[in-house]
Design goal:
single chain; 259 residues; alpha/beta; Spore Coat Polysaccharide Biosynthesis Protein SpsA, Chain A; 2 domains; four-stranded parallel beta sheet; four-stranded mixed beta sheet; 44% helix
Length: 259
Protein backbone atom coordinates (compact mmCIF):
# COMPACT_ATOMS: atom_id res chain seq x y z
CA UNK A 1 0.00 0.00 0.00
CA UNK A 2 1.47 3.33 -1.09
CA UNK A 3 -0.05 6.69 -0.18
CA UNK A 4 0.65 9.34 -2.80
CA UNK A 5 0.23 12.96 -3.73
CA UNK A 6 2.22 14.10 -6.77
CA UNK A 7 4.92 11.43 -6.47
CA UNK A 8 5.69 10.91 -10.14
CA UNK A 9 9.41 11.08 -9.42
CA UNK A 10 9.32 8.10 -7.06
CA UNK A 11 6.23 5.97 -7.57
CA UNK A 12 7.54 3.79 -10.43
CA UNK A 13 10.68 2.64 -8.62
CA UNK A 14 8.75 2.22 -5.38
CA UNK A 15 6.19 -0.08 -7.02
CA UNK A 16 8.92 -2.06 -8.75
CA UNK A 17 10.46 -2.78 -5.34
CA UNK A 18 7.08 -4.19 -4.25
CA UNK A 19 6.67 -6.57 -7.18
CA UNK A 20 6.79 -9.49 -4.70
CA UNK A 21 3.53 -8.44 -3.00
CA UNK A 22 0.21 -10.18 -3.64
CA UNK A 23 -1.30 -6.84 -4.63
CA UNK A 24 -0.06 -3.27 -4.95
CA UNK A 25 -2.53 -0.52 -4.15
CA UNK A 26 -1.79 3.16 -4.59
CA UNK A 27 -4.04 5.27 -2.35
CA UNK A 28 -3.81 8.63 -4.06
CA UNK A 29 -4.90 12.12 -2.96
CA UNK A 30 -5.84 13.31 -6.47
CA UNK A 31 -2.35 13.82 -7.88
CA UNK A 32 -1.97 16.14 -10.86
CA UNK A 33 1.55 15.22 -12.02
CA UNK A 34 1.07 11.84 -13.68
CA UNK A 35 1.44 9.74 -10.53
CA UNK A 36 -1.75 7.80 -11.23
CA UNK A 37 -0.83 6.99 -14.83
CA UNK A 38 2.67 5.86 -13.84
CA UNK A 39 1.27 3.67 -11.06
CA UNK A 40 -1.14 2.01 -13.45
CA UNK A 41 1.63 1.47 -16.00
CA UNK A 42 3.59 -0.35 -13.30
CA UNK A 43 0.64 -2.66 -12.63
CA UNK A 44 -0.79 -1.11 -9.47
CA UNK A 45 -4.41 -0.54 -8.59
CA UNK A 46 -5.25 3.09 -7.84
CA UNK A 47 -7.90 4.41 -5.49
CA UNK A 48 -8.31 8.14 -4.91
CA UNK A 49 -9.40 9.64 -1.63
CA UNK A 50 -9.56 13.23 -0.38
CA UNK A 51 -6.68 13.93 2.02
CA UNK A 52 -7.47 15.44 5.41
CA UNK A 53 -4.48 14.31 7.43
CA UNK A 54 -2.05 11.41 7.49
CA UNK A 55 -3.82 9.38 10.19
CA UNK A 56 -7.20 9.71 8.47
CA UNK A 57 -5.72 8.74 5.12
CA UNK A 58 -4.07 5.60 6.44
CA UNK A 59 -7.24 4.57 8.27
CA UNK A 60 -9.23 5.07 5.06
CA UNK A 61 -6.72 2.92 3.20
CA UNK A 62 -7.02 0.13 5.75
CA UNK A 63 -10.81 0.28 5.56
CA UNK A 64 -10.64 0.00 1.77
CA UNK A 65 -8.98 -3.44 1.90
CA UNK A 66 -10.53 -4.90 5.04
CA UNK A 67 -12.56 -7.43 3.05
CA UNK A 68 -9.66 -8.36 0.74
CA UNK A 69 -6.51 -8.88 2.77
CA UNK A 70 -5.41 -9.93 6.24
CA UNK A 71 -2.26 -7.79 6.26
CA UNK A 72 -1.13 -4.48 4.75
CA UNK A 73 2.44 -3.25 4.37
CA UNK A 74 2.57 0.55 4.11
CA UNK A 75 5.38 2.04 2.04
CA UNK A 76 5.91 5.69 1.18
CA UNK A 77 6.66 6.58 -2.42
CA UNK A 78 10.21 7.66 -1.58
CA UNK A 79 10.94 4.30 0.04
CA UNK A 80 12.18 1.03 -1.46
CA UNK A 81 11.62 -2.49 -0.17
CA UNK A 82 14.59 -4.80 -0.64
CA UNK A 83 14.25 -8.50 -1.43
CA UNK A 84 15.73 -9.30 1.97
CA UNK A 85 12.99 -7.29 3.68
CA UNK A 86 10.35 -8.99 1.53
CA UNK A 87 11.68 -12.38 2.64
CA UNK A 88 11.56 -11.34 6.29
CA UNK A 89 7.97 -10.11 5.94
CA UNK A 90 6.90 -13.43 4.41
CA UNK A 91 8.59 -15.34 7.21
CA UNK A 92 6.98 -13.18 9.91
CA UNK A 93 3.50 -13.46 8.40
CA UNK A 94 3.80 -17.24 8.26
CA UNK A 95 3.71 -17.20 12.09
CA UNK A 96 2.73 -13.68 13.25
CA UNK A 97 3.31 -12.81 16.90
CA UNK A 98 1.92 -9.26 16.85
CA UNK A 99 -0.80 -7.22 15.16
CA UNK A 100 1.60 -4.44 14.13
CA UNK A 101 5.25 -4.59 13.12
CA UNK A 102 7.69 -1.72 12.91
CA UNK A 103 10.48 -1.70 10.35
CA UNK A 104 13.84 0.12 10.66
CA UNK A 105 14.88 2.50 7.90
CA UNK A 106 18.10 3.37 6.15
CA UNK A 107 17.61 7.09 5.62
CA UNK A 108 19.46 8.86 2.82
CA UNK A 109 19.66 12.58 3.56
CA UNK A 110 21.18 14.83 0.90
CA UNK A 111 22.34 11.66 -0.84
CA UNK A 112 24.18 10.24 2.19
CA UNK A 113 23.19 7.20 4.25
CA UNK A 114 22.74 8.71 7.71
CA UNK A 115 23.04 6.42 10.72
CA UNK A 116 23.56 9.07 13.43
CA UNK A 117 21.64 12.07 14.78
CA UNK A 118 18.48 10.00 15.29
CA UNK A 119 18.00 8.70 11.76
CA UNK A 120 18.70 5.06 12.57
CA UNK A 121 17.11 2.70 13.36
CA UNK A 122 14.14 5.09 12.91
CA UNK A 123 11.53 2.35 13.43
CA UNK A 124 8.22 2.99 11.69
CA UNK A 125 4.99 1.03 12.19
CA UNK A 126 4.24 -0.28 8.70
CA UNK A 127 3.00 -3.88 8.74
CA UNK A 128 -0.62 -3.99 9.96
CA UNK A 129 -3.13 -6.74 10.56
CA UNK A 130 -6.28 -5.51 8.83
CA UNK A 131 -9.33 -5.15 11.06
CA UNK A 132 -7.31 -5.25 14.28
CA UNK A 133 -5.31 -2.06 13.95
CA UNK A 134 -5.46 1.58 12.90
CA UNK A 135 -4.08 5.06 13.54
CA UNK A 136 -4.82 7.60 16.26
CA UNK A 137 -6.80 10.43 14.65
CA UNK A 138 -5.51 12.84 17.31
CA UNK A 139 -2.06 12.54 15.71
CA UNK A 140 -2.51 14.18 12.33
CA UNK A 141 1.19 13.86 11.46
CA UNK A 142 3.87 11.48 12.76
CA UNK A 143 1.03 8.97 12.99
CA UNK A 144 0.66 6.67 16.00
CA UNK A 145 -0.55 3.10 15.55
CA UNK A 146 -3.51 1.89 17.60
CA UNK A 147 -3.57 -1.83 18.46
CA UNK A 148 -3.67 -4.34 21.31
CA UNK A 149 -0.60 -6.11 22.62
CA UNK A 150 3.03 -5.32 21.93
CA UNK A 151 4.48 -4.11 18.66
CA UNK A 152 6.73 -6.48 16.77
CA UNK A 153 9.97 -5.34 15.18
CA UNK A 154 11.46 -6.39 11.87
CA UNK A 155 15.23 -6.43 11.46
CA UNK A 156 15.81 -5.65 7.78
CA UNK A 157 15.80 -1.94 6.92
CA UNK A 158 13.48 -0.25 4.48
CA UNK A 159 15.43 2.11 2.21
CA UNK A 160 14.23 5.71 2.52
CA UNK A 161 15.37 8.48 0.17
CA UNK A 162 14.40 11.07 2.71
CA UNK A 163 15.59 14.52 1.66
CA UNK A 164 17.31 15.09 -1.68
CA UNK A 165 18.65 18.50 -0.74
CA UNK A 166 18.45 21.22 1.89
CA UNK A 167 15.63 23.03 0.07
CA UNK A 168 13.40 19.95 0.27
CA UNK A 169 14.37 19.52 3.93
CA UNK A 170 13.18 23.05 4.68
CA UNK A 171 9.91 22.57 2.79
CA UNK A 172 9.02 19.42 4.69
CA UNK A 173 10.17 20.65 8.09
CA UNK A 174 8.10 23.83 7.78
CA UNK A 175 5.05 21.65 7.19
CA UNK A 176 5.87 19.32 10.08
CA UNK A 177 6.51 22.12 12.56
CA UNK A 178 3.21 23.75 11.64
CA UNK A 179 1.45 20.45 12.39
CA UNK A 180 3.35 19.96 15.64
CA UNK A 181 2.66 23.52 16.78
CA UNK A 182 -1.01 22.97 16.02
CA UNK A 183 -1.07 19.87 18.20
CA UNK A 184 0.47 21.78 21.13
CA UNK A 185 -1.99 24.63 20.55
CA UNK A 186 -4.96 22.27 20.70
CA UNK A 187 -3.55 20.86 23.94
CA UNK A 188 -3.50 24.35 25.44
CA UNK A 189 0.29 24.59 25.67
CA UNK A 190 1.59 28.16 25.71
CA UNK A 191 5.26 28.74 24.92
CA UNK A 192 7.44 30.21 27.67
CA UNK A 193 10.37 32.52 26.90
CA UNK A 194 12.87 29.85 27.90
CA UNK A 195 11.40 27.42 25.35
CA UNK A 196 12.85 29.47 22.51
CA UNK A 197 16.38 28.98 23.83
CA UNK A 198 16.57 25.90 26.02
CA UNK A 199 14.49 23.54 23.88
CA UNK A 200 16.53 24.10 20.68
CA UNK A 201 19.74 23.68 22.68
CA UNK A 202 18.44 20.43 24.15
CA UNK A 203 17.45 19.23 20.69
CA UNK A 204 20.92 19.97 19.34
CA UNK A 205 22.56 18.17 22.25
CA UNK A 206 20.23 15.21 21.83
CA UNK A 207 20.90 14.92 18.10
CA UNK A 208 24.60 15.68 18.01
CA UNK A 209 25.78 14.02 21.24
CA UNK A 210 23.19 11.58 22.64
CA UNK A 211 22.21 10.25 19.20
CA UNK A 212 25.81 10.39 17.95
CA UNK A 213 25.39 12.90 15.18
CA UNK A 214 29.05 13.74 15.70
CA UNK A 215 29.94 10.45 14.04
CA UNK A 216 28.54 11.85 10.79
CA UNK A 217 31.05 14.72 10.88
CA UNK A 218 29.98 17.96 9.18
CA UNK A 219 26.87 16.20 7.85
CA UNK A 220 25.78 15.37 11.41
CA UNK A 221 26.55 18.89 12.61
CA UNK A 222 24.42 20.35 9.83
CA UNK A 223 21.48 18.04 10.51
CA UNK A 224 21.61 18.56 14.28
CA UNK A 225 21.69 22.33 13.79
CA UNK A 226 18.77 22.23 11.35
CA UNK A 227 16.65 20.14 13.71
CA UNK A 228 17.47 22.50 16.58
CA UNK A 229 16.36 25.44 14.44
CA UNK A 230 13.06 23.77 13.60
CA UNK A 231 12.48 23.08 17.27
CA UNK A 232 12.75 26.85 17.74
CA UNK A 233 10.51 27.37 14.70
CA UNK A 234 7.82 25.15 16.22
CA UNK A 235 7.62 27.39 19.30
CA UNK A 236 7.67 30.49 17.10
CA UNK A 237 4.67 29.15 15.19
CA UNK A 238 2.95 28.17 18.44
CA UNK A 239 3.42 31.71 19.78
CA UNK A 240 1.90 33.12 16.57
CA UNK A 241 -1.14 30.85 16.96
CA UNK A 242 -1.70 32.12 20.50
CA UNK A 243 -1.29 35.76 19.43
CA UNK A 244 -3.87 35.30 16.71
CA UNK A 245 -6.25 33.49 19.08
CA UNK A 246 -5.86 36.16 21.77
CA UNK A 247 -6.45 38.92 19.21
CA UNK A 248 -9.64 37.24 18.04
CA UNK A 249 -10.87 36.88 21.62
CA UNK A 250 -10.13 40.54 22.36
CA UNK A 251 -11.92 41.62 19.21
CA UNK A 252 -14.95 39.47 20.09
CA UNK A 253 -14.93 40.84 23.63
CA UNK A 254 -14.88 44.45 22.42
CA UNK A 255 -17.67 43.75 19.98
CA UNK A 256 -19.86 42.06 22.61
CA UNK A 257 -19.26 44.99 25.00
CA UNK A 258 -20.64 47.51 22.53
CA UNK A 259 -24.22 48.69 23.28
Amino acid sequence: MVLTLNESQHIGACLDSLAWADDRLVFDSFSTDGTVEIAQTHGARVIQNVFHNYAQQRNAALAQVQDEFAWVFFVDADERCTLALADEIRAVLAHPQAAVYAVPRHNYLFGKLTLGAGWFPDYQARLFQVGQTGFDLAREVHETAVFEGEMGHLQTPLVHYNYQDVAQFHRKQRKYTEYDAGILFKQGVRPKPRNFVLQPLREFRRRFISLRGYKEGRHGLQLSSLMAYYNFDMYRRLARMWREADSRREADSRQSAQP
